[in-house]
Design brief:
The protein contains 2 helices and 13 strands; from the N terminus they run αβαββββββββββββ. It is mainly β and 241 residues long. The protein has a 5-stranded antiparallel β-sheet. The radius of gyration is 17 Å and the shape is globular.
Length: 241
């Protein structure tokens, strides 16, 4: 059990930055491009109590909380945040099960980025451009934000330079938490242009929007990947700076 726990923790620590939009057929072997999510999926699938997964598995970000010894996995297959105890590699429950958009194409799936804000409350971005709060102990969906809209007010961006062919309602994805100032950042990386939303977590069960920023220069395209944004991905809070 201790060996399994170490493996699970290592896989998910790596998955924090390496598992974006990983959808894998459950009946096939490991994908050479996506070894971490496949291994992670195969490992948790064999744990007692884990809801069975058939067809296509779709996971996104995972987060290991060293303070509570909990692991949180954005699981679009169960439409929720899978909660595991790293002590003994035990599945606990799926928080917010069925309350996220699930395994949908074209940037509409969720949950996506996940991070704990308190010892029991976990924030997760969803595919309908909302931020959701779930309780890891009860499994309940505690809060869902209003739809996050783009604050960009600059010149119109040509459709050809927008991901997925044009503006639309795209996922709230990667997240980060500034525990010092109690500010949570969520990134909408597929919007045109991408943008970030800052939430106050003074009341952690009902975060409120306190500011937004757009990233118009993140639309830089390349000749090899047309209609692909330059990207705004995983933010990180650095307390030393």
């Amino acid at each position: 059990m201790r060996s399994s726990a170490r493996i699970l923790s290592a896989l998910c620590a790596a998955a924090l930055f390496g598992c974006s939009q990983a959808a894998l057929p459950g009946a096939t072997g490991p994908s050479p491009q996506l070894p971490v999510p496949y291994a992670l999926g195969a490992l948790i699938q064999g744990m007692p109590g884990v809801p069975p997964k058939t067809g296509t598995w779709s996971f996104d970000i995972s987060y290991v909380d060293a303070n509570t010894h909990m692991l949180y996995l954005a699981d679009r297959t169960t439409n929720g945040v899978d909660v595991f105890s790293t002590v003994g590699s035990q599945y606990v429950l799926t928080a917010g099960a069925g309350r996220f958009t699930g395994n949908l194409p074209n940037g509409a799936g969720g949950p996506n980025g996940v991070a704990p804000v308190t010892s029991t409350l976990v924030y997760a971005g969803d595919g309908n451009s909302t931020l959701k709060v779930v309780d890891r102990t009860s499994g309940a969906l505690v809060f869902s934000s209003p739809v996050l809209t783009n604050p960009y007010t600059g010149p119109a961006i040509p459709t050809a330079q927008c991901p997925n062919g044009g503006p639309g309602l795209f996922r709230t994805d990667e997240v980060a938490y500034d525990s010092t100032d109690q500010i949570f950042l969520a990134i909408n990386d597929l919007s045109c242009p991408p943008f970030g939303t800052f939430f106050s977590t003074t009341n952690p069960s009902a975060p409120t929007v306190v500011g937004q920023v757009s990233f118009p220069t993140a639309l830089t395209l390349t000749t090899t990947t047309p209609n692909t944004p330059g990207g705004v991905e995983q933010p990180v809070w650095d307390p030393k700076q």
